[in-house]
Amino acid sequence: MGIVQPEDERFMAAAIRLARWHTGQTSTNPSVGCLIVRDGAIVGRAVTALGGRPHAEPQALAEAGELARSATAYVTLEPCSHHGKTPPCAEALIAYGVGRVVISVTDPDVRVSGRGIAMLRDAGIEVTTGVLEEEGRQSLAGYLTRQTKNRPYVTLKLAVSADGMIGREGVGQVAITGPEARAQVQALRAETDAILVGIGTAISDDPLLTVRTPGLEAQSPVRIVLDPALALPLTSKLVETAREVPVIVVASEEVSPLGAEEGLPPSALPGISPTRGEIGKRPTPSSPSSDSKVPASANLGQGAGPQPISPLVGEMSGRTEGGNTPTEPAEIDSRHTALEAAGVEVLYCNPYHPEVLLPALATRGISSLLVEGGAKTAKLFLETGLVDRIQLYQAPVVIGEGGIESPLQATDIPSGFAHRGTYIFGADRLDEYEREN
């Protein structure tokens, strides 16, 4: 492990804060922070660049220049040791003559794990590992989950009224939390690769699911709808904006125009990049298959309630057309064609089997997923044990008659979750829970 120096935690905490600047904006690469420290002063600093390259270490070293010689490098993740599209970061640290490297988290990537540390030590560099490891793991949660569990890190966000409701039956959205809490949710979206809702929510709320904070609009996540029978209205805001921010509709394999006899995997479709708003060409992934089939009529989507308590700018319910569920093969094929023509990707992949869907998303480079819409969708992810973090907002608003009951209350958090903190935003309270590994 190496000897921990008195100042190590202070500088590593700064490196972790730096790493969070680009969370969710580095494509398939993790957002890593690196500080170069000499004689107690920071002489170089960097975070993984937008899009994932260049990595943090060469940028920080370049800024430090000659001052990097015999200095200490603080890195939130073990420096890479393999030749990819860029040279190994461990080699760069050696070339600049760094005297010591302090690491928070060892990289689980089999191409790196332990090898970066070994390269540095073989070059005579002192290496200390595990400094603020828990905090480092939290900052790298998406990357680490995709590497170790072959799926994205899943956050479930719920806003619950004083009487235990998340909406009201009938029409569109109900604004349960106030503007301060909603601004916090916008920040969460901005650092997340993808956001997911059920078809009921997509139809009744007609949401945009984008980031509306000025200056962060380009960081909107990929939008995913669980839509077994392709019922998403062609006039919905999601479809109308699909060419600006990617939309994936997850449909039942039973309605696939390719037919089950084709034997194609559910992800045998053009890849979609989680890099903000770009539809990228990726190698065709090979996602796990499943023998279980979900009837096309199954609908675990969530319909939310009638007159909103207060306007929720940009996501008020619209009068979408075409929300009917197609049933005839020709009608389904026509809807598929129309959705793709509008820029929507249709993915046939067991929409209500997250254990199959999540690995398929991981193969597309999606490392973090925010489940935001629908009581039944939330319950689905909770019951399958695929939620890593719960953000539970509690507001003083009372929904009253016709309310949709929350699938989760502060008094019945599932076992295996630890309370990580309580935060106050205006009149609302946020309690955060994280799964204990």
From TrEMBL:
The keyword Acyltransferase does not apply. Residues 283-297 have a biased composition (Low complexity). Pathway: Cofactor biosynthesis; riboflavin biosynthesis; 5-amino-6-(D-ribitylamino)uracil from GTP: step 2/4; Cofactor biosynthesis; riboflavin biosynthesis; 5-amino-6-(D-ribitylamino)uracil from GTP: step 3/4. The keyword Oxidoreductase applies. Residues 6-128 form the CMP/dCMP-type deaminase domain. Keywords: Hydrolase, Metal-binding, Multifunctional enzyme, NADP, Oxidoreductase, Riboflavin biosynthesis, Zinc. GO terms for molecular function: 5-amino-6-(5-phosphoribosylamino)uracil reductase activity; diaminohydroxyphosphoribosylaminopyrimidine deaminase activity. InterPro entries: APOBEC/CMP_deaminase_Zn-bd (IPR016192), CMP_dCMP_dom (IPR002125), Cytidine_deaminase-like (IPR016193), DHFR-like_dom_sf (IPR024072), Eubact_RibD (IPR004794), RibDG_C (IPR002734), Riboflavin_Biosynth_HTPR (IPR050765). Residues 256-331 are annotated as: Disordered. Its EC number is 1.1.1.193, 3.5.4.26. Pfam families: dCMP_cyt_deam_1, RibD_C. In the N-terminal section; belongs to the cytidine and deoxycytidylate deaminase family. Converts 2,5-diamino-6-(ribosylamino)-4(3h)-pyrimidinone 5'-phosphate into 5-amino-6-(ribosylamino)-2,4(1h,3h)-pyrimidinedione 5'-phosphate. This is Riboflavin biosynthesis protein RibD.
